[in-house]
Amino acid sequence: MTPQRHTHLDALAMTLMIGLCALWGLNQVAAKVANAGISPVLQAGLRSAGSTLLLMGWSRWQGIRLFESDGSGRAGLAAGLLFAAEFALIFWGLEYTTASRAVVFLYTAPFVVALGMHLLVPAERLTRNQTVGLLCAFGGIVLAFGDNLSLPDRRQLVGDLMLLVSAVMWGATTVLVRTTRLAAVSPNKTLLYQLGVSALALPVASLLLGEKGVIGEPSALIWVSLAWQIVAVAFASYLAWFWLISRYPATRLSAFSFLTPLFGMLFGAALLGERITWGLGGAMVLVAAGIWLVNRK
């Protein structure tokens, strides 16, 4: 059964998106903590594996069938491979470029979503205000994270390109989910494709990348950080995200994702003592203005 479509975001959708962005920003801190004991790509694979088990149990309790034939297999497999490759490229690219540069390149993903939806879904064609809003919000990200940006050397250029490709994959996954048979299946099944494929592919990618795997004897805090990612992020928040994009315009939702790195910066400062750049205040204003422009009627 195809879910009811909305042409604009209502209060529920906007509240959920702000909450999800805050949770994803906090996840950046949890991942950094867990990195001290579990290599990043392996960590992402373990997260997907644990969340897959949770999702299967939750779906069984809800009476949602995950394995019946409905014609979504090819699109689901493609979405899962894009999801796994995206994370592998992000973590691999961070070996070559800085975190600030990575954020700027990664958050070109909403433009991929907007362009894809503009070309493939007539009801979600970009307006001038939406284009200006996306550029405004992206300008906020550059302002917040771009204080150390400069022309890249050869090594940084490789990392920048990896992050740019991962952004394209992130955006392409959203468009794929919205424009194929996946749009008509339950959010549970859509998420299962991505978690299941990445649970198998990311540990293999970790080996190919030469990661150390589990480092020493991880502390309880590291395991708690991983558990948080499994339960709150990869299971609960991603399920909510797929529920949202099955019902609301993807471009309007994606504009909110610019809040995530700003929340990450705030949580990093509050919990890890990280430095806040001078441009954070202006960045928040630009991102908020951009979201308003994208979503105004």
From TrEMBL:
It is a multi-pass membrane protein. Keywords: Membrane, Transmembrane, Transmembrane helix. The keyword Membrane applies. The keyword Transmembrane applies. It holds the Pfam family EamA. It is found in: Membrane. Residues 13-145, 158-295 form the EamA domain. GO terms for cellular component: membrane. The lineage of its organism: Bacteria, Pseudomonadati, Pseudomonadota, Alphaproteobacteria, Rhodospirillales. It comes from the Bacteria. The chain crosses the membrane at residues 41-61, 73-94, 100-120, 132-151, 157-179, 191-209, 221-241, 253-272, 278-295. This is DMT family permease. Belongs to the EamA transporter family.
